[in-house]
């Protein structure tokens, strides 16, 4: 990986698309996800969070193996 040139958004498209797809297909379905919109959040999102960083990392790795690498969707 290398830094993208300033004021050249086309250099970041593939990475941004990948993060967007992970957000759409994986992250928003994890308990405790807050998302970008305050109005779309639940009332007690902080209390719903039930994963440690290690557990979340393992869950993401499983999802990448079972879903992302197989078909891109799950």
UniProtKB/TrEMBL annotation:
Domain of life according to the entry: Bacteria
Protein name: Transposase
Biological source species: Streptomyces echinatus
């Amino acid at each position: 990986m290398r830094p993208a040139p300033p004021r050249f958004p086309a250099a970041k498209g593939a990475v941004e698309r990948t993060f967007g797809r992970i957000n759409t297909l994986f992250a928003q379905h994890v308990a405790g996800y807050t998302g970008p919109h305050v109005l779309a959040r639940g009332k007690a999102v902080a209390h719903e969070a039930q994963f440690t960083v290690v557990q979340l990392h393992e869950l993401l790795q499983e999802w990448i193996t079972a879903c992302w690498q197989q078909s891109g969707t799950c």
